[in-house]
Amino acid sequence: MRRFHLQFVLLMAGMIAGIMFILPPRVAAGESAGTEWFKDIRNHWARSHILRLAALDLVRGYPDATYRPQRPLTRLELVALVMRVGDFEKAAAEAARRGTRRHTVEAAGTPSPAGSPIPRVPWGQDSFTLAVKKEFLPPEWVASFNPDKPVTRAEVAALLARSFYLAVPEEGDTSGSAPSTGDFPDIDRAPALYQPYIRAVAAAGIMSGYSDGTFRPAHILNRAEMAVILSSLLDRNWVKVPAGRRLEGWVSSVRMDPKGLELELTSLAGVQKLRVSPDYHCFAGGRECTLLQAGNHRVEVILDGRRQVRWVNLLEERKTAGNTEKVTGSVKSVVLGEDNLLVLNDLNCEDRIFSLAWDAVLVGKRAKQDFRSLKPGVFVEVELDGGQVKRVTLLEVKKISGTVGTLTGKTLGLLGRSSQKGNPDRFDYWDRARIVDREDRRAGGVMRGDRVEITYLDPIPGEIQDERVLQIKITSRPGLKKQTGKLQAIKTTGGTYRIVLEKDREYDVDPAVRVTDPSGNRIAFSDLDRYIKSRIELWLDGAGVVMEIRIAGE
């Protein structure tokens, strides 16, 4: 009877140890304003990592509001942690709901993939069984699993390498490893089967050695050290985090109102106003600070289940742009993700790819701070600092369509337009604009008579000739049109020649007009005087200007 009682006490002690590790965070962290989440980590070196993970419900404490950072981590706790951060708990629970719970709970005697029976554990059986079936556990663990055995650094390396499917180098192969991670001087102290796993986690950057260069594979890992490892997994986005709980951006304002602190977080995806939990924690360089110090800093923010700010880490200060370069063009695409990119088609019709700085802002009369709102074709002015986009101004452009009537090296004029009606009839320095065809491809140049759509800026509405042309789109280019009749007269006005046909039809003549006689031979324009009353053919461009004259005869 005493033996049975002792076994029962030991079993309950193991279950309680496991339950302590996975208690709900409300019990662990405490919800009352101004309370300490864990009273035993106030000055602990891993405090920021522990609180970061606790804010995401990835690690939990005990009912007495302690975390016990120096407590050795057991094998079963390690398995439970990996299954939680890898989001496998959900898969295990789903398997149980589908009727497989009988197989997992009655695990003893059920063969594992390695052939050994799946052990029964005091708690978390579904997750443990799934870990065995996925072969996350080294086979020797399954053969004689002791849930309460403290884990070593070598064993943690093995479970992480297998669970996250890291590339495991062959013995003696250090290629692909980061510098100084090929081999640790004490790696031979680890069992031979564990050495490749140690190399793999070191190369992946999720476990490193000590300041003396050793790995210490036999060192018993405690809960604080495991929190640091999990934090490195989180940095690499290998940890499953509920959507919307982990944010990045820069703090554009922190203000106090009757409801408490409110943080305004600005990012490339927009602006969010977030309520701050009364028991939040804020860190800078691993040291605790106040949220009021976070202004104009890029930060990582973790929200609790009520979408309140629970944990903040200051990453870097936002700097004022120095010498900036400006580029004008139209947006081709915006990519937000691991790489944040803006693809711009500049005024030379060249596509340029720019990296968006983390604190880039979008401004303009109709702009909102969300780079996803930039649609293809929108004209913008981009300010670059160090090659990165710091500011994008949404330009207020206007458009006008018409036929090119006059065209010089400096001025482009439209037919039938009057500046008195509020629309410009001519544009100076048009040649600085981008010239494209109907498909927005680079066009060779503008010709008189082209039907065009002009996109321009009007800095001071109402002012004359202050427009800046950004783009000229050639929508059509009519061919030459023929007019026939008897030559009645040739007029000269201010250096411009005009042809008059019968019925007083008058046409401007291009200075480079081509003239041919009845035999098809080219003659000088001045020789036309000899053909008054003769029948001629005029070939006009789209603006109605004579480009060619053919004399038909008497």
Automatic annotation (TrEMBL):
Q: What keywords tag this UniProt record?
A: Repeat
Could you name the domain of life of the organism this protein comes from? Bacteria
The SLH domain covers which part of the protein? 33-96, 111-174, 181-244
Region named Disordered: 99-120
| Designated name of the protein | S-layer homology domain-containing protein
